[in-house]
């Protein structure tokens, strides 16, 4: 009889883990608290060994075909004048070769999972009882089922994580909040990622997508690390308050919030736990090792971690042995990938016009021709980015 796995969360790590478990013959159920697949979110990139994994899945070309079309990064002033430009091919560019909307990547991954994977929306886990040979699960509707393993892939703010490893101090608050949402495109918008630093302590982004709209992000410093539950209207009010008087496109973004329902707004925490598993339950993706968007490694880590975890479960008879191997092979890399650039996030925020000038001057200097020419001496343009993670070679049954 096939082994049964329950996964909490249908974002990137959940479907990715399900895909590889199903390749090993497992019956997989994914529960997602949202009533349908959540297809919103910002542009994300796929780097390092994660590129090899999507290639193994036969998904690389489809993912590349859905590129957002973003040309690179621009630092802009309050009049929307570009102070510094970092095209895709330039040193310091954050836009990558594989740049795709989070929702489009999720859609691709979910469609790639075999028919043996079952998705249940509008469902959450209420309780777990991990025994020697099984895990008894209670769902929010009172239903109870038994699985061989349970995996938490429900993100930075995972509700399943404390059920798996208990409640302890594994959250490192970075002192700032971030938001993502979609707004209408206007005639003056371009295909660059525009970064605006306000003297009011706000950083705002506008990024193009391949759907004729713009992806907005509003980020700000805050001492509030653990807010109460926020409704969509609560999120609108908080964002409008931070955008008030910020300059640039802040009025346009604030006005657009009235017609926006896909608002993500949350304090940013890095997740650093001593262990990722207990008994027959384990963590994967941001639930295990959220690095925050400041590292640009969240999606890459989710893909690699899911691949390692699922294939260790598929090639080990005992879940405990698989979880130990998963940590041994992947945790050091995930921990290194959480390292933030010096001074981030504090150095990126400004609460005076003088500091805005310093930040923009620094960006202009980094984008200058002499600096770019010097940086190019240490990199070969025709050499692909090397993998820092040595991907294990598993014997996976044919799809």
UniProtKB/TrEMBL annotation:
EC number of the protein: 1.14.13.114
Annotated InterPro entries: FAD-bd, FAD/NAD-bd_sf, FAD_aromatic-hydroxylase
Organism: Jannaschia donghaensis
Pfam families documented for this protein: FAD_binding_3
UniProt GO MF annotations: 6-hydroxynicotinate 3-monooxygenase activity; FAD binding
Domain of life: Bacteria
Protein name: 6-hydroxynicotinate 3-monooxygenase
UniProt keywords, alphabetically: Monooxygenase, Oxidoreductase
Broad EC category: oxidoreductase
Ranges for domain FAD-binding: 5-336
Coiled-coil ranges from the UniProt annotation: none
SUPFAM superfamilies: FAD/NAD(P)-binding domain
